[in-house]
Design a protein that fits this description.
Blueprint lengths: L13 H14 L12 H8 L3 H13 L3 E4 L3 E4 L7 E5 L3 H8 L3 E12 L2 H7 L5 E11 L2 E10 L1 H4 L4 H6 L2 H7 L6 E10 L2 H7 L6 E10 L5 E10 L3 E5 L7 H8 L1
Parallel strand pairs: 3-10
Antiparallel strand pairs: 1-2, 4-5, 5-6, 6-9, 7-8, 8-9
Helix pairs in contact: 1-3, 2-3
GO molecular function, one term: DNA binding
InterPro entries: Bact_HTH_transcr_reg (IPR050679), Chorismate_lyase_/UTRA_dom_sf (IPR028978), Tscrpt_reg_HTH_GntR (IPR000524), UTRA (IPR011663), WH-like_DNA-bd_sf (IPR036388), WH_DNA-bd_sf (IPR036390)
Protein name: GntR family transcriptional regulator
Length: 256
């Protein structure tokens, strides 16, 4: 989707699409702290939306603490925006790949014959005693916000190397190597940092973190990657857009 393209046929309301678009541009630094967002008439013209839609979209960003509105001075980006790295999803792997490209990688390490725990063995449906383990910290504008560890079956992990991962996300490297990605199952939980995670994220031990566990599957439903990511709560936000599906009519009928 281009910077000014919204999809009126999508299930996600236009004001949410516009808010997502503006949020990405704020978090990427295109609209830096202290800068002014386009006015409502400018948003209406650029994105072909109504004044109500433009106003609702900006209202979402105000509620998130990213911008403030003031009479006579426009809508300004707040300092809180610079402290946050955000990911915003509507449920697609391609969107996840695009979001991952926004961050840089540090402390990249690839272990070719790493021991496998029972939880990883079960998640990847393995019979082998080892996996390829890829760990790295991720940063945005030089500030570390996440530590991720991927576990890959040997036949998949052997396709990657450090040079590729320095340039692209692991998912992009897999796709470019001919591995098809079809779906993923993800869970999110509040957690506390143990000694290793705290050191990786430059936090005191016991600090709160957000732990995201994801299993990525191929078209044959076989697991390809098991990843655990740990995020600093003070530098990261995770937003998922939800909408009613085709069962909405029966839902409302049941409430009538």
């Amino acid at each position: 989707m281009s910077a000014s393209a919204l999809d009126p046929e999508a299930a996600l309301p236009l004001y949410h699409q516009l808010a997502d678009n503006l949020r990405r541009r704020i978090l990427s630094g295109e609209y830096p702290v202290g800068s002014t967002l386009p006015s409502e008439p400018q948003l209406m013209s650029t994105y072909s939306v109504s004044r109500v839609t433009a106003r609702q979209a900006v209202g979402v960003l105000v509620s998130e603490g990213l911008v403030s509105r003031g009479s006579g001075r426009g809508t300004r980006v707040l300092p809180a925006a610079a402290a946050q790295v955000g990911q915003h999803f509507n449920g697609s792997l391609s969107e996840l790949m695009r979001e991952t490209k926004r961050s840089g990688v540090k402390d990249l390490r690839i272990e070719r014959h790493a021991p496998v725990s029972e939880s990883v063995r079960s998640a990847l449906e393995l019979t082998d005693d080892s996996v390829v383990r890829v760990s790295r910290t991720r940063h945005f504008d030089g500030r570390i916000f996440a530590y991720s560890v991927d576990h890959l079956p040997a036949k998949v992990g052997d396709l990657i190397d450090e040079d590729k991962l320095e340039r692209d996300s692991l998912m992009t490297v897999l796709v470019n190597s001919g591995i098809e990605l079809a779906s993923a199952r993800q869970s999110i939980r509040a957690d506390i940092a143990d000694a290793e995670i705290a050191a990786r994220l430059d936090l005191p031990q016991g600090a709160p973190v957000l732990t995201v566990t994801r299993v990525i599957f191929g078209p044959d439903k076989k697991p390809i990657d098991y990843v655990e990511s740990y995020y600093r709560g003070d530098r990261y936000t995770y937003t998922v857009n939800l909408s009613l599906d085709n069962e909405a009519d029966s839902l409302y009928e049941g409430l009538a």
